Amino acid sequence: MANRSIRDGDNPELLEERRMATFDTDKMAAVIYGSEEFARRRREITDAVSKIPELADIKPYPFLTREEKVTEGTRKISILTKYLNQLIDRDNEEESLHLHREVIGYEGHPFALHDALFIPTLQSQASDEQQEKWLERARRREIIGCYAQTELGHGSNLRNLETTAVYDIASQEFVLHTPTTTALKWWPGALGKSCNYALVVAELIIKRNNYGPHFFMVQLRDEKTHIPLKGVTVGDIGPKMNFNAADNGYLGLNNLRVPRTNLLMRHCKVEADGTYVKPPHAKIGYSGMVKIRSQMAMEQGLFLAHALTIAARYSAVRRQGHLDDKQVEVKVLDYQTQQHRLFPSLARAYAFIFTGFETIHLYSQLLKDVDMGNTSGMADLHALTSGLKSVVAHETGEGIEQARMACGGHGYSMASYISVVYGIAIGGCTYEGENMVMLLQLARYLVKSVELIKAGKAKKLGPVASYLADKSDETDLTSLNGYVKMFENMARRQAWKATEKFLKLMESGESREVAWNKSAVELTRASRLHTRLFIIEAFMRRVSRIEDIPVKEVLTDLLHLHVNYELLDVATYALEFMSFTQLDYVRDQLYLYLEKIRPNAVSLVDSFQISDMQLRSVLGRRDGHVYENLFKWAKSSPLNNADVLPSVEKYLKPMMEKAKL
Amino acid sequence: MANRSIRDGDNPELLEERRMATFDTDKMAAVIYGSEEFARRRREITDAVSKIPELADIKPYPFLTREEKVTEGTRKISILTKYLNQLIDRDNEEESLHLHREVIGYEGHPFALHDALFIPTLQSQASDEQQEKWLERARRREIIGCYAQTELGHGSNLRNLETTAVYDIASQEFVLHTPTTTALKWWPGALGKSCNYALVVAELIIKRNNYGPHFFMVQLRDEKTHIPLKGVTVGDIGPKMNFNAADNGYLGLNNLRVPRTNLLMRHCKVEADGTYVKPPHAKIGYSGMVKIRSQMAMEQGLFLAHALTIAARYSAVRRQGHLDDKQVEVKVLDYQTQQHRLFPSLARAYAFIFTGFETIHLYSQLLKDVDMGNTSGMADLHALTSGLKSVVAHETGEGIEQARMACGGHGYSMASYISVVYGIAIGGCTYEGENMVMLLQLARYLVKSVELIKAGKAKKLGPVASYLADKSDETDLTSLNGYVKMFENMARRQAWKATEKFLKLMESGESREVAWNKSAVELTRASRLHTRLFIIEAFMRRVSRIEDIPVKEVLTDLLHLHVNYELLDVATYALEFMSFTQLDYVRDQLYLYLEKIRPNAVSLVDSFQISDMQLRSVLGRRDGHVYENLFKWAKSSPLNNADVLPSVEKYLKPMMEKAKL
């Protein structure tokens, strides 16, 4: 059997879909998740979790108040702590991520930053003695930590952080202080209520000299009572668009004193007498950010996959209207408009995941290079991941919302759960670097590259930018390589054009900053085209390496859909290099591949193997029994606990009675 | 003073902005709201409401649980009932809408459908005797009603509703029945918990003949106890993406009997012996839908205005990074990327509101014509509003999300409130006709129009479609009329092209339905272009009628921004009619007008005169005191009621203690 999701008793609508699969969904999962081994481990973890009743949701998440969500996240994390060694290899980040997604979902928990930033920062920034003191305790979860950097008044611009750590030579202490309301640390996950320690980023000041932002270990709460220490003002920043099981917090410090040895001193040092010893390499703190961004394409791809799983399955269950058959209504998945809403996003989900694998691989490669003293790849990867993060998070958000709307009215119900996935995914446009800022960081790299070429130094270009030095050729669209050439033409033209605009403005007398700002939108356009080119190439590279023929065939269809959709989407740029006849051809190809994908659509989403537990969606259930479960779900929702609501007794009944008089 | 929003003690950042206004914001408000009279009434209502303490929010809405939101909506509506006559002219729909938006906001209340559909349907569908029986009681709010049409298994396809009303001649009763789970009425606002009556849409069946959907008055709950009657299963459908103060409901009817006279019989009749008397005009029930859609452009424009008010004000308060001045950080509103995120949407907000006025006017004109027996304009307006509803709701959603992201991290906090506005507005892509279905309804009209032209009957075209018969001319972009011509060229070309594709597929042997489906995406493209053309023209018509020079000047700038942005957005189509040099000109114009709008940006959003109460946003406060109020808001959020959460006591403390052993 090719689709492995078939079970007895399934809705026949989905059975029919799954029987059309032309490939083995387990083999596709191995391609999606990078190895047969990890795809199998995912299934095993899902299976093991399903057998531990205390790890199940106490209620559907949408029925919980915010306080209940925080409690539920905390309950789950404390229970998971018991089972961790039994369920996963704790050193395997991917297994851990999958486990947490299954059990806790997307809405957050008190250990989010503890594992993702607190411990890694201790590992990379704390000296050996400091690690001895704190790292094991943190690993054993004796203490809970977070990472406190952004402030109420400042996000991405680290140079203007207001929190200070002034060194007091007499007592050999740092005095940490947030002098204004805008200096309050704001947003760090789990800072508000859960953590008792924080790594606080503050401007290091010695004898009135500012040495810039550094990390300080700060105890926030008493380890026994959990009550905030004197000088510490800490609390939750209030409800958010999503992540409401997490207690993102604020933190004010009122001349709080910590010992000199609480400055993380792996790379820099402050001696007892106040002598500052510089770190050997200025960019050493940089790579954590690049790491997280390099994982984002994969993560966002999975968010998109989540939403599409729900929408594609539901679209095969929902019938509405008629085509040829006047007796039986048609599955809404048979409408071209529905396919056009879902399938290009499906191609993107695959593309993003494959691109994510590549950047994660590039990142590990970079770490090895840096260890060997070679930091030349840093700028390339930083630029690449900045662009990817922006483009992928933006297109993921669009795709998720279209998936939700493709579910009609029921998509709007929390029973679809798609709006939660949207809320989480769209955060990616803002966190880890605001999208416009990120696109402009990539643009800086592109402009530098063009300037290198103009200076005759094209050989110094990073591998991702080398096409910028090529000549734009006429190309045909008879092969995938033709599409790549077309995207190269477009990305190259726009990078040069935006650079020229910027340079011309400077020549005309504008300052560098003003010229940059006046070219900014054109520069972001260049960054987007460059990034989309990279995604297409990564998709192609991955497909070319697949050995299983049926899997390769359907992914080749998806790739064709992708290149045609993408090209049409930016055809304004393409028309400098192709004719309207070619454009019509691209359109026809697009519609052709929508039809080609149709029979495999449900199997392509099944291949993501996102369990019902993780989907948390009535519409997206594997078994397709949507309607009876929507009714069940609704009946159990909290508002239905009473037939007559207290508010009806209190307000509506008296109002109606009074009107009768 | 030109900007009327200036008060003592405001944040100087906003004061500086407002002092740059080149026009009078009260005069602009009169243009936005159609008359000086209504703009003034809005301010008076806002002012009056602010003086009635019991109409204030008991807490910021984001701090309320769903149950508390329902209670709060109910409390407010019952208090408002007392004050209605004092605060507004009850016959004035606009005043009523404004009042409800101020006091209750966007998240719903138990009378949403009572006023908007229950009473109007009684007015248009109930006979005089029936009106006497129910209408006055409904108006006095002795009873609360809703309108129950969509079912769990069927939304827009009315022909396949499953609920039946079988006439029993012996007892002269209708037997109402929902035979399956999918037949449950699903979604009607206030049906779940608040209403005691419903107008139920059911298939009328007499002697096994199905006469199609009809309206039946059905009592759901006992008027005294509010307990559901026998045969009635009713409840809340659970939490939604938004509208969570509303109890959208489900309804099952188990062979419930109602008297023959509960069929609404203004236009059709069922005699005691089961004789069915047809309504005189088949489309008579149609116009309610057209009315609501004709108001949607205005409504969505105001949602967009709401989000932009928040984002523009906050962008003038938030400082981040540097341009020329290395000492003082720059307002983020000075970044071109930020302007590009906000100002084209600002132009659209104005455009949508102006377009809304036109369609509302066309609707009243239509009603007069229909009264005179002339229904010829019906199809035109139906097509127009179908397209408008789709394009405007889609672009509004995009614009609101961009506004939220323009606020960076704080945009993601519920303190911005933008995500609530998004949740409400984006519902407009689905309710009142799913967007794709709507675009295809307009497409049907466009195809018919092209077929008329091909048949030599161009004179029969509706006024909105007459341009389809013109020849495509070369045009220049030196005047606004040039842009209109360009949009006509594009919309015409695409309408013809999509029609040809459809006809060709039929010629090649496909059935009408299949040919239609295979052309569907191209047809929706035609509908979008046609609609965007109409919006541009409506914007131009409105600006041309303005007398106040300063107001006209700034709106002319906004109009120029609009046409350039819109043209660039669909340049793929435009390039068939213009050169790349012209395209570069359009880009330059776009950036030029972003700069031109900049000094008036805050004053342009101030002109919407959306009160702080209605904004419900800490970021968007009129006085600009954002940061201290964010802190205040956060401190008062429910999670901060205790320093140490119960979940910390119960789960985290034991976990940490155990780890120490």
Features:
homodimer; 661 residues; alpha+beta; Butyryl-CoA Dehydrogenase, subunit A, domain 2; six-stranded mixed β-sheet; three-stranded antiparallel β-sheet; flavoprotein (chains A, B); FAD (chains A, B); FAD binding (chains A, B); Acyl-coenzyme A oxidase acox-1.2 (chains A, B)
* Percentage of β-strand residues of chain A: 5-15%
- The outline of chain A comes out as globular
Within CATH, the superfamily of the domain at 115-280 in chain A carries the name Butyryl-CoA Dehydrogenase, subunit A, domain 2
How many beta-strand elements of chain A?
11
What structural category do the secondary elements of chain A indicate?
Answer: alpha+beta
Which radius of gyration of chain A do the C-alpha atoms yield? Answer: 27 Å
Uncertain spans of chain A, ≥5 residues at pLDDT below 50?
Answer: none
For this structure, the CATH topology of the domain at 115-280 in chain A is Butyryl-CoA Dehydrogenase, subunit A, domain 2
Measured as a percent range, the helix fraction of chain A is 40-55%
Separate helix tally of chain A: 23
Structural notes for this entry:
Two copies of one chain form a homodimer. By secondary structure, chain A is α+β, with helices and mostly antiparallel strands. Chain A has a domain at 115-280: Butyryl-CoA Dehydrogenase, subunit A, domain 2. In chain A, 54% of the residues lie in helices and 8% in strands. Chain A is built from 23 helices and eleven strands. In chain A, the strands form three sheets. In chain A, strands 1, 2, 3, 5, 6 and 9 form a six-stranded mixed sheet that branches. In chain A, strands 4-8-7 form a three-stranded antiparallel sheet, with no helix packed on it. In chain A, strand 2 and strand 3 form a beta hairpin. In chain A, helix 2 packs across helix 3 and helix 8 (287-317) packs antiparallel against helix 9 (336-371). The first copy, chain A, starts with 11 loop residues before the first helix and ends with a helix. The mean pLDDT of chain A is 95.
